[in-house]
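S.,

Sequence below, as promised.
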Amino acid sequence: MIRLAEMWLPFGGPPEEEIFTRFGLTRHAFQARLEKALTIR
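The prediction came back faster than expected:
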């Protein structure tokens, strides 16, 4: 997830179709999981 987000960062993030195809998630769910993964505890 992090790598996909990183690749697409200069373009405003990955397209919804790409997110759904790879992870079966909506953009909102992808962003929530990505935020959780990047949160330092």
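Residues 6 and 32 are 15 Å apart (CA to CA).

Coffee later?
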